């Protein structure tokens, strides 16, 4: 997969994509991340990339010409593979794991990062296929959104994760929050690792993990549960979790 990023801060984006799983995915040539700076396409001696916002008021806006030249250059560099251009902005659709999985199947993505008040609307209308937001808050630039997208997509590239299974067990991969995770020591002053995880009984371990995922989703993100149909086993496990949680809260001894 090829990802081109249009940004006034190319070093920031390159450094984010050079570490960890994404950095390794690049080394394994599963993914390439290239940054293009509109300033390199500005034609005036000051290499201007922004202008006053029309209609007055505070703030500057990224100019059409240098930004568009950078997008066109990135498209050309993609040597004809169909590209999808995404503008990171608070006006976009909220990023979800489902959207990440969809984008991870693309050949060529171009990520447009705004700065100042954003990018001239005419350029968005002409060159952007989709606007995506990483959350309902305002950042000083789209680069962090691009870095989030690159990381979430990069780790889903086949061969990026040493153990592909871990992507399947991700939070949200099945629309639920993840179960708790533990490592040695089995007993610590902070407590012991749950017995079932030391049992070696993989069916019971899978059951416990699903029960914990369902329970934590019910407690912390009931909106996610409302979005999905639970199978009979899941309903039984959630009922069991709820009963035990309510009992524990009422101070009753947990059932044997
Ligand atoms: C943002 C977000 C975001 C808005 C103006 C950049 C800033 C500035 N991007 N999800 N939330 N962008 O706040 O993606 O140009």
Please give a structural write-up.
- The protein is α/β, with parallel strands linked by helices and 256 residues long.
- The protein folds into two domains: 2-154, 3-Layer(aba) Sandwich (Alpha/beta knot), CATH 3.40.1280; 170-252, Orthogonal Bundle (Trp Operon Repressor, Chain A), CATH 1.10.1270.20.
- Helix content is 39%, strand content 16%.
- It contains ten helices and nine strands.
- The protein has helices at residues 10-16, 20-27, 64-77, 97-103, 121-127, 143-154, 165-168, 202-220, 222-226, 232-249, and strands at 2-6, 32-36, 50-52, 60-62, 83-94, 108-113, 130-133, 187-188, 191-192.
- The strands form three sheets. The chain has a five-stranded parallel beta sheet with strand order 2-1-6-5-7. It has a two-stranded antiparallel ribbon with strand order 3-4. It has a two-stranded antiparallel sheet with strand order 8-9.
- Strand 3 and strand 4 (60-62) form a beta hairpin.
- Helix 8 packs across helix 10 (232-249).
- The protein is elongated, with a radius of gyration of 23 Å.
- The relative contact order is 0.13.
- It binds ligand 4FV.
- Ligand 4FV binds at residues 88-90, 114-116, 118, 133-135, 137-139, 141-142, 145.
What order do the helices and strands come in, and which of them pair?
Elements: E1 2-6, H1 10-16, H2 20-27, E2 32-36, E3 50-52, E4 60-62, H3 64-77, E5 83-94, H4 97-103, E6 108-113, H5 121-127, E7 130-133, H6 143-154, H7 165-168, E8 187-188, E9 191-192, H8 202-220, H9 222-226, H10 232-249
Parallel strand pairs: 1-2, 1-6, 5-6, 5-7
Antiparallel strand pairs: 3-4, 8-9
The structure holds ligand 4FV.
Ligand 4FV binds next to strand 5.
């Amino acid at each position: 997969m090829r990802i081109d990023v249009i940004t006034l801060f190319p070093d920031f984006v390159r450094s984010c994509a050079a570490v960890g799983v994404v950095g390794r995915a690049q080394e394994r040539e599963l993914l390439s991340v290239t940054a293009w700076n509109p300033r390199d396409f500005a034609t005036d001696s000051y290499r201007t990339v922004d202008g006053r916002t029309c209609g007055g008021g505070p703030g500057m806006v990224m100019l059409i010409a240098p930004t568009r030249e950078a997008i066109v250059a990135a498209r050309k560099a993609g040597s004809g593979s169909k590209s999808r251009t995404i503008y990171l902005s608070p006006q976009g659709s909220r990023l979800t794991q489902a959207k990440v999985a969809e984008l991870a199947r693309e050949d060529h993505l171009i990520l447009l990062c705004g700065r100042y008040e954003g990018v001239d609307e005419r350029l968005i209308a002409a060159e952007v296929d989709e606007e995506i937001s990483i959350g309902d808050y305002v950042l000083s630039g789209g680069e962090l959104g691009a870095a989030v997208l690159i990381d979430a997509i990069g780790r889903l590239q086949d061969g990026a994760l040493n153990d592909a299974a871990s992507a399947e067990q991700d939070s949200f991969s099945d629309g639920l929050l993840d179960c708790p995770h533990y490592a040695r020591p089995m007993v610590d002053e902070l407590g012991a690792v749950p017995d079932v995880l030391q049992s070696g009984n993989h069916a019971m371990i899978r059951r416990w993990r699903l029960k914990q995922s369902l329970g934590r989703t019910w407690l912390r993100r009931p909106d996610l549960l409302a979005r999905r149909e639970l199978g009979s086993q899941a309903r039984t496990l959630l009922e069991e979790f709820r009963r035990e949680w309510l009992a524990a809260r009422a101070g009753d001894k947990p059932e044997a």
